[in-house]
């Protein structure tokens, strides 16, 4: 079991309350990894950052309130670990889950204050997390708010890895993965202990993958290059603004950080679906566009722009979908899988951004019956 030197008790980690300072502890030097006589896959990463964050909630506007990182070498041995509280400057959310009250977070550093140290822990490593898309999304948004870029280029989800290994788990909860490898959880939903548990479970998973020649399920991470906490501009009748989408881009200059954001349930697209997009032709108002995977512009901001241009934002892919936008067309997500099955056109974010600059008007006037 990994030694956790920031833990005051052998049974449960202590949640810092009076001292909000960050903590970093070097781990003892690991002995030669068992099975090291087996050649290690040269394509495997040279280091990992096992991460867990606790947050005020699950939405795009929620904030990180604590973070922990275990840095591992190429074979999964611990190099050191680090933990910090973070003042979210708002209500801490479900205290009954994470135990972090407003009083405990009052003197904690802001994310901007720990961003550099956090980045040092993440740099040049693959981010490893349980349900990694969530942890990565929260981290990327915090860095974007701080007008910085998270130094992460790839992530690995331990849920995906357990599926690749065919582990006989009753479900994909962290406690089930921990129990499979005999790892004892001391305090669930405490970032430091969850990161420790995951690091302990990841090491044998990594070795099993190396032994069996399993390709690691690595996914690209695209740091956010644009972010807004403001609300989207909506047309006078509650629908999207029509006309050239170039004008809709300028609308985002009116965003104000922290301003009230309306419900994300958008009004129905007023234009009929003209069918699938064809390569070499412009997008047309009413087309159904779906998004999958990471985007360099915040997903909801990108969807807002498409909506304002008169496009229908589809939450799934069907035979009626006009176009799928993804930066990872070879991923095995349900949307990319369905797009391949239905023959739905697929383009990346950059190409979509170019198409958004000149969206053709709908052939049928708004309000005319047509396929939606």
Task: Walk me through this protein's architecture.
It contains eleven helices and eleven strands. The strands form two sheets. A seven-stranded mixed β-sheet has the order 1-4-3-2-5-6-7, with helices on both faces. It has helices at residues 95-98, 102-105, 111-122, 132-145, 158-165, 174-180, 191-212, 245-250, 299-308, 334-342, 349-356, and strands at residues 23-26, 47-55, 64-73, 78-85, 126-129, 154-157, 218-220, 288-292, 312-314, 323-326, 346-347. Strand 10, helix 10 (334-342) and strand 11 form a beta-alpha-beta unit. Mean pLDDT is 81; it is low at 1-21, 28-36, 231-263 and 366-372. The longest helix has 22 residues, at 191-212. Helix 6 (174-180) crosses helix 7 (191-212). With 372 residues, the chain is of the alpha/beta class. It folds into two domains: 23-220, Ribonuclease H-like superfamily/Ribonuclease H (Nucleotidyltransferase, domain 5), CATH 3.30.420; 245-356, BRCT domain (Rossmann fold), CATH 3.40.50.10190. GO terms for molecular function: 3'-5' exonuclease activity; DNA binding; DNA-directed DNA polymerase activity. Residues 1-41, 230-282 are annotated as: Disordered. Pfam families: BRCT (PF00533), RNase_T (PF00929).
């Amino acid at each position: 079991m990994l030694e956790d030197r920031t833990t005051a008790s052998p049974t449960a980690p202590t949640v810092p309350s009076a001292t909000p300072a960050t903590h970093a502890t070097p781990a003892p030097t690991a002995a030669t990894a068992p099975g090291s006589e087996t050649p290690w896959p040269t394509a495997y990463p040279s280091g990992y950052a096992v991460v867990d964050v606790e947050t005020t909630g699950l939405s795009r506007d929620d904030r990180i309130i604590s973070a922990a990182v275990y840095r591992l070498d190429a074979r999964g041995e611990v190099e050191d670990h680090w933990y910090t509280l973070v003042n979210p400057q708002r209500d801490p959310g479900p205290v009954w889950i994470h135990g972090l009250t407003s009083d405990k977070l009052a003197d904690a550093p802001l994310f901007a204050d720990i961003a550099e140290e956090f980045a040092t822990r993440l740099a040049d490593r693959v981010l490893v997390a349980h349900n990694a898309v969530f942890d990565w999304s929260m981290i990327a948004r915090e860095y974007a708010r701080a007008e910085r870029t998270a130094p992460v280029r790839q992530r690995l989800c331990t849920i995906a890895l357990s599926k690749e290994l065919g582990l006989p788990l009753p479900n994909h909860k962290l406690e089930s993965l921990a129990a499979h490898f005999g790892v004892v959880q001391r305090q669930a939903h405490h970032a430091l202990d969850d990161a420790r548990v995951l690091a302990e479970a990841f090491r044998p998973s990594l070795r099993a993958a190396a032994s069996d020649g399993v390709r690691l399920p690595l996914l690209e991470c695209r740091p956010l290059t644009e972010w807004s906490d403001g609300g989207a501009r909506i047309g006078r009748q509650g629908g999207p603004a029509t006309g050239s989408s170039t004008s809709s881009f300028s609308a985002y200059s009116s965003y104000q950080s922290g301003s009230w954001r309306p419900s994300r349930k958008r009004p129905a697209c007023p234009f009929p679906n003209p069918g699938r997009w064809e390569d070499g032709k412009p997008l047309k108002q009413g087309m159904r566009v779906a998004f999958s995977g990471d985007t360099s512009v915040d997903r909801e901001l990108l969807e807002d722009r498409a909506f304002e241009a008169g496009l229908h934002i589809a939450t799934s892919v069907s035979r009626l979908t006009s176009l799928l936008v993804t930066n990872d067309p070879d991923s095995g997500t349900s949307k990319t899988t369905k797009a391949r099955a239905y023959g739905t056109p697929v383009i990346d974010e950059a190409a979509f951004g170019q198409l958004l600059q000149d969206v053709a008007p709908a052939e049928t006037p708004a309000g005319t019956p047509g396929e939606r």
